[in-house]
Amino acid sequence: MSTHDDAILDDAERWRSRDLAVLWHPCTQMREHQTIEGRNVLPLLPVARGDGAWLVGQDGRRYLDAVSSWWVNLHGHAEPRIAEAVARQARTLEQVILAGCSHPPAVELAERLLAIAPREAGRAPLAKVFYADNGSAGIEVALKMAFHWFRNRGDEPRRTKFVALHNGYHGETIGALSVGDIPLYRRIYAPLLMDAIFAPSPDAYLARDGQSAEGCANDAADALAHLLDEHAGEVCALVLEPLVQCAGGMRMHHPAYLRRVRELCDVHGIFLVADEIAVGFGRTGTMFACEQAGVQPDLLCLSKGLTGGFLPLAAVLATQAIYDGFLDDSRERAFLHSHSYTGNPLACAAALASLDIFEADDVLARNRGTAARMRALAEPIAKLPHVADVRQTGMILAFELARDGDRRTPFDPALRIGLRAYRAALERGVLLRPLGDVLYWMPPYCVDDAQLALLAETTAAAIREASACA
Ligand SMILES: *Cc1c(COP(=O)(O)O)cnc(C)c1O
């Protein structure tokens, strides 16, 4: 190796130690980044810049971002059109208080989101947009709105409960965590959380004895119907992730479930909150996942891909009926919720530029081709002995690893198979951060054929290497 390469590697190492001296990373046991006897469990990857689907490390190497940087990136890193829109907006108006003031990007983005939001024949469309600044905050907004709407109607104090799904995820703030059901994130904080009512997940992976995905969906909907009867009059809203429970391991369900849920919410007069924070903006093949069931929610939560992955922003879309429930002479009946950066102009400008790219590049059509190539590339990987399930919804493809591929017996968690696969992939130039023992492909939409081939080859090698220890 030349002295030039040595210098680059030293530089990466320097960044690693400067980082660990001062930063506390999200969702991380920091102990795993510590180097003990020349080794660490989890190598920290210092990134210098992004370029399309690539991340360029401080070590000068390229890494394929197979997880779209926690599912936020849509059109590639440092996308020039979004970068330019943000720069232009920064020179014009960087931020203004949105209480009492207005600005063009916030208005224009609201108009465009409402124009593309899911529609259902015979139902009044989503009509108003409330901004927040991250996904969890968006969920808090939706929960508070649903609760407060019933209060304003005079239904106090009975409707205080939310229904959510087993294995669902809605964020990390206390309210959002209360309607989430991932033990690793939730258990420790349980004493702080509000009581939610959890209904069975329609997850098709849970199917037994040749049951179809639709059968699973119907069973889960039947169970939900019972639960709602039991709690009649106590519930203000039901919150779910349509089509894919992402953080719960990319577990997927049949759209029939969403149609049944919509009917049940109507029968019980409760709001349906669709959390499309991860699945919105083309991830599942359609612009929004609800479209595949022909269902329109009462509240739609968007974030993550909303700005193309450039800036934090969330939008909660509500019906006119919900909005009208807050109109009054009393301030207390208003929705007195705010975040300092509500509707930040830079973030709105990025979101508008991202929507322009959907149109200019016909992204959804291009993704259909990409999704088909992903499916074909996954086929041989499905045959590996420890791959128990391969599932796909649009631009999300997941591999469930298990001890006996066919019998779906999980690996001993202590083996940390997913983490081993992560390391093996990173060494081969792919960032493939797993969820437990689920590896998944959720690449930026600009991913090309050569990158997909690298992704497939690396995934197969990582699965072989990781499961060799079992
Ligand atoms: C990521 C996520 C959230 C939380 O969003 P943050 O911006 O991380 O707070 C909520 N719901 C779903 C479905 C998510 O995937």
Structural commentary:
The protein has 470 residues and is an alpha/beta fold. It has 2 domains: 140 residues, Aspartate Aminotransferase, domain 1 (Alpha-Beta Complex), CATH 3.90.1150.10; 278 residues, Aspartate Aminotransferase, domain 2. The chain is built from 14 helices and 16 strands. The strands form 4 sheets. Strands 4-12-11-10-7-5-6 form a 7-stranded mixed β-sheet, sandwiched between helices. A 4-stranded mixed β-sheet has the order 1-2-3-15. Strand 13 and strand 14 form a beta hairpin. The chain is globular and about 75 Å long. The protein starts with a helix and ends with a helix.
What attributes characterize this protein structure?
PyrdxlP-dep_Trfase; 470 residues; binds pyridoxal-5'-phosphate; Aspartate Aminotransferase, domain 2; 16 strands; 15% strand; seven-stranded mixed sheet; four-stranded mixed sheet; Aspartate Aminotransferase, domain 1; 38% helix; PyrdxlP-dep_Trfase_small; Adenosylmethionine-8-amino-7-oxononanoate aminotransferase; 2 domains
Compile the SSE list and pairings.
Layout: H1 3-22, E1 47-51, E2 54-57, E3 62-65, H2 68-71, H3 80-92, H4 104-116, E4 126-132, H5 135-153, E5 161-165, H6 174-178, H7 183-186, E6 197-199, H8 213-230, E7 235-240, E8 244-245, E9 251-252, H9 256-268, E10 271-275, E11 299-302, E12 314-319, H10 320-324, H11 345-360, H12 363-382, E13 387-393, E14 396-401, H13 417-427, E15 430-431, E16 438-441, H14 449-467
Parallel strand pairs: 3-15, 5-6, 5-7, 7-10, 10-11
Antiparallel strand pairs: 1-2, 2-3, 4-12, 8-9, 11-12, 13-14, 14-16
Helix pairs in contact: 3-11, 4-11, 8-9, 12-14, 13-14
